[in-house]
């Protein structure tokens, strides 16, 4: 009996020690959670953008996140609109950042600020669309004009070179004033020119109206549509829902943008004809990589093109096995 | 102090018990205090940045007001106030000395620090331009200062938004941890209570066990058990002393009871001896009673016998006269007290009277032969010893015999004794009876026929034994169908003293 009591006492004392240790450790962990992973880095970069919620931007940031530690740098995002562009550029200069990445719908419009940065010794990289009138150090991006031409070619292939094409612009194509939009639309018209029976019926912006409503309006109109080009992966999902509802899957071809799991699945099931894939992550990675090179005063090319990939059922197994 | 603390005493046990319980609950209290302190510290830390930023903004506002006053009026008080704020903000700058941290909040504090530097620079520029009386430039600098102030406010606002989110997360995390700590505390209190209960149980068991054991021993002693083993386990010193004292007490009681038992046994033996004596006295009384019974109207009997004897003389009946005379002497001898002492001569006279009477009765059937040493005649002995022996010879020796019988009565000196032997040539005694008789195991109810005294061999032996206070007085020898001889050794010395 006495042995059992002693054993029980030992077990209780041991339990008390373990519980105390766990509890105190839990409290101390709170401090660790607050400052965990807080490390000072060598470089401080600022990203200036006018859209932070698009698929392209999110992928772009994912690319930066994947490489930022390797370049011993930190970054912060300034959103034009929340704060004025003058204030942002002013703050960036006062906080003495080591480099600026401009991902605006019209980088060229901020040429004077870019020049001011350069005058203060801050390196500048333009992303998405170039700022040829400025002293920017580097441009990294896809050729939107070529992308538009490629979209037109895919539309011709999908419709056997004859039909009417509706375009729903989203993602980084904010409005008709954006440089990227101009380039893409110009490329699209240029591509359509090659096919007599292929024409652009309408161009809509999903930043103004949700894609479902746009498609509903298009399909409810007098003109028949054979192809829909979507530049935002989210819009592709919305368009597909409408087509399914209207039982028009297959009769209207869809040219998508991106390689999200949903789009890959649509292609596999022949719901989407093809998708143009811009590697936004690569865009983020390269922007940091080249900014770092510039800070290290290495010689870099002033124009870095990100190639466009076309995802079709034919090559799906190769790209997404 | 040192002595009892290092000894296994009850005092030390109580002290340690209370100490352990106190330590248990003190540990619980310290743990609770520490947990509360840590939680409070975390809460303070969550808001420390906000407090610091708020102070900074207040100081900036004051600085701007004083600077504006100074620029407008060149008031020295305002300048002093401005300098105070300037220095205060300069000191505060050290709180923003973070590097280019990958933590967004710290990076923002780094930015605020940079902006604060610019802010203070603009303020100094404004003062310098004021002193240089460059109105345009000092107004420009002041305006830039306000712009930087706006940027700082933007950054602070952004930081507070982030901090709010972080603090909210931390608060939820803290709440979760506090819940865990609370559960831990409840569990700990429960365990501490259990531990205390176990300690109390162990302590009470340790203290009461030897006492219970001692009470059991007390009960055992009352039931007659006096030997005990050691009480199991290590007990405090006082219990050991009690146990030792208890064992000693039990030992003493045991020894005392053994002594008492020996004493009682001795007393019992004495009592038995007394009873034996009383029994002998009873036998004597019995014999005396019988003798008294035989004295029923002895004078009447003697007078009658004398009358018969005189009648016989008148009628010239000599034999009748002689017979009655013998009978009269026999009765006279028989009715005397058995506690008297007589000489062997007197005893032999009585035996001769008895033999004469028996001869009248049985005629020539029995021959009585006396072979007496004259030197033995004066030896003293109890009365009526030989007559019962001769009576036994007549009754038992010739019970189934038809021929004549010889009864020899012999006496002789035998060292310090007189050897008296009564021998008959009767049918003898079988071996078992002989052995029994020589072992002095006599039958209680002797054959009481009209021709005997009624005093058996047992009576004869007992009276001789008490008379001479010795046992080797009597021996019977016999051979079946040939003889029986009863031999008495009457001590020459000692009988006088009786």
Write the layout of secondary structure elements.
The complex is a heterodimer of chains A (321) and B (498).
Chain A: H1 2-35, E1 40-41, E2 43-49, H2 55-68, E3 73-79, H3 85-94, E4 99-103, H4 111-119, E5 123-127, E6 138-141, H5 144-158, E7 162-169, H6 179-192, E8 197-205, H7 211-220, E9 227-230, H8 233-245, E10 253-257, H9 261-268, E11 274-278, H10 280-295, E12 303-305, E13 308-312, H11 316-319
Helix pairs in contact in A: 2-10, 5-6, 7-8
Chain B: H1 2-5, H2 10-73, H3 76-92, E1 100-101, H4 104-131, H5 135-222, H6 237-294, H7 298-314, H8 318-334, E2 342-343, H9 344-362, E3 366-372, E4 380-381, H10 386-397, E5 405-414, E6 417-424, H11 431-438, H12 457-468, E7 474-479, E8 483-491
Parallel strand pairs in B: 3-5
Antiparallel strand pairs in B: 2-4, 5-6, 6-8, 7-8
Helix pairs in contact in B: 2-3, 2-5, 4-5, 5-6, 6-12, 7-8, 8-9
What does this structure look like?
Chain A is α/β, with parallel strands linked by helices and 321 residues long. Chain A has 2 domains: 43-142 and 280-306, 3-Layer(aba) Sandwich (Rossmann fold); 144-278 and 312-319, 3-Layer(aba) Sandwich (Rossmann fold). Chain A has helices at 2-35, 55-68, 85-94, 111-119, 144-158, 179-192, 211-220, 233-245, 261-268, 280-295, 316-319; strands at residues 40-41, 43-49, 73-79, 99-103, 123-127, 138-141, 162-169, 197-205, 227-230, 253-257, 274-278, 303-305, 308-312. In chain A, strands 3-2-4-5-6-12 form a 6-stranded parallel β-sheet, sandwiched between helices. A 6-stranded mixed β-sheet of chain A has the order 8-7-9-10-11-13, with helices on both faces. In chain A, helix 2 packs across helix 10, helix 5 packs parallel to helix 6 and helix 7 crosses helix 8. The longest helix of chain A has 34 residues, at 2-35. The mean pLDDT of chain A is 89. With 498 residues, chain B is an alpha+beta fold. Chain B has 2 domains: 2-214, Four Helix Bundle (Hemerythrin (Met), subunit A) (Up-down Bundle), CATH 1.20.120; 338-491, Histidine kinase-like ATPase, C-terminal domain (Heat Shock Protein 90, 2-Layer Sandwich). Helices cover 69% and strands 9% of the residues of chain B. In chain B, strands 3-5-6-8-7 form a 5-stranded mixed β-sheet. A two-stranded antiparallel ribbon of chain B has the order 2-4. In chain B, strand 5 and strand 6 form a beta hairpin. In chain B, helix 7 runs antiparallel to helix 8. The two termini of chain B are 83 Å apart. Residues 445-451 of chain B have low confidence and may be disordered. At the A-B interface, helix 1, strand 1, strand 3 and helix 3 of A face helix 2, strand 1, helix 4 and helix 5 of B.
